[in-house]
Design a protein that fits this description.
The chain is of the alpha/beta class and 397 residues long. Helix content is 37%, strand content 18%. The strands form 2 sheets. It has a 9-stranded mixed sheet with strand order 3-2-4-7-1-8-11-10-9, with helices on both faces. It has a two-stranded antiparallel ribbon with strand order 5-6. Strand 5 and strand 6 form a beta hairpin. The longest helix is centred in the C-terminal third of the chain and has 17 residues, at 349-365.
Length: 397
């Protein structure tokens, strides 16, 4: 362990569900669990990095201070991050950079959300210059509509089938059985998935994620601080990628309604989603061939297949082969979403990138009872936020 390592000293979650309480309660529970896991007192924390939610008024917008107040004012430094679904990774990076700069020894990263029923929607008010407002109000394009467009693209370009998408749900449902933090813990079959109601063709109800309440937290520290607490072989943060797209972005991304033109500008070597994990690999000095486990952003079952390709598990168009061969099951070549993924959790936007890191941390520690990937030493998370926010964290032990 080198002196410039950032260590995951503690990890904690509040179970996902529809609890109907203030989001601060979930973050507070997750933070206390992470502090207990780390073996440190709240008074020891010198920096709080909060992942913000936009559905809870001012307390959600200033999440770092909100959680610090709930835990009890100590005068610690604080920051709040908002990057939609990538908010958690941005909050992790803020804490990590402060530790690497020598300005913090031990930091708390926390995110939590309380979501409304139904599809996520923009805040109230008319904003005709806001692409997210426009796609809802002019096109009626809910999130599942976008997911369906991505799924249809896989079918048209690569020949993926309804059964392939359903098989992803079956896999994740099986994984989620062993996760006490998961909201949905029930096995299903391809036939049951395909018999569920159509939401946005070709995606059915069991193939898209719900909106959920939940919280997740991490305690990050310097290598020296970890040693001083007797931690010899910790999980380390080897890289964090928060890259943006490169112009021209020729594959449409939520919430935009059009792509950039490549008529007079050469398309980049990698599309946006593939560039997210690539940047993490370059920073960490590892490659996809070194991975033992991955947690990816399965807003829909079809999107999970996209991520197989984007994080380099296979060539473009080959993702369906991995699910058909059982390669991404626990016990397979490269288990993906052993937590159960968003298929079993649903979206709690500020918490989910942090929750992915919690899961990979537990996997690398050998603490993921009921869903453990044997011998896991290297893991990656992959996620993205609206308007081109990359989100990937690479962890090693």
């Amino acid at each position: 362990m080198s002196t410039d390592d950032v260590v995951v000293l503690g990890a904690g979650m509040h179970p996902w569900g529809k609890w109907g309480r203030n989001f601060v309660e979930y973050g507070l529970a997750a933070a206390r669990t992470a502090l207990d896991d780390a073996g440190v007192e709240w008074s020891d924390i010198d920096f709080v990095s909060g992942s913000s939610t936009m559905r809870n008024g001012y307390p959600g917008y200033v999440a770092g201070a909100t959680f610090a107040q709930a835990l009890g004012w100590t005068g610690c430094r604080v920051a709040s991050s908002y990057a939609a679904c990538a908010s958690g990774a941005t909050a992790i990076e803020a804490a990590r950079m402060r530790i690497l700069a020598g300005r913090s020894d031990v930091a708390l990263v926390v995110g939590a959300d309380t979501t409304p029923k139904g599809f996520l929607a923009p805040n109230a008010g008319d904003r005709p210059d806001d692409p997210d407002w426009l796609r809802f109000r002019l096109g009626g394009i809910t999130n599942p509509s976008y997911f369906a467009l991505y799924a249809r693209r896989r079918m048209d370009v690569f020949g993926d089938t309804d059964e392939d998408f359903a098989a992803v749900k079956v896999k994740n449902a099986r994984h989620g059985l062993g996760n006490p933090n998961a909201r949905y813990r029930a096995e299903t079959s391809v036939e049951e998935v395909l018999a569920s109601p159509m939401v946005a063709n070709p995606l059915r109800l069991l193939e898209i994620c719900a909106t959920s309440d939940g919280g997740a937290a991490l305690v990050l520290c310097s290598a020296d601080y970890a040693r001083s607490h007797g931690v010899i072989d910790p999980v380390r943060v080897a890289a964090v990628s928060t890259v943006t797209p490169t112009y021209p972005n020729t594959i449409i991304e939520m919430p935009n309604l059009a792509t950039d033109s490549s008529a007079v500008a050469t398309a980049p070597e990698r599309p946006f989603k593939a560039s997210i994990a690539h940047a993490a690999y370059e920073e960490a000095g590892v490659g996809p061939e070194d991975l033992d486990v991955a947690e990816v952003y399965d807003l829909s079952c079809a999107l999970e297949l996209d991520w197989y390709e984007d994080i380099g598990l296979c060539a473009p168009g080959d993702a369906a082969k991995l699910i058909r061969n059982g390669d991404t099951m626990i016990g397979g070549r490269i288990p993906v979403n052993p937590s159960g993924g968003l298929a079993c959790f649903g979206e709690a936007v500020p918490a989910q990138a942090i929750a992915q890191v919690c899961e990979v941390t537990w996997q690398l520690r050998g603490q993921a009872a009921g869903r453990q990937v044997d011998g896991a030493k290297v893991g990656i998370t992959a996620n993205q936020g609206l308007f081109g926010h990359g989100s990937s964290v690479l962890l090693v032990r």
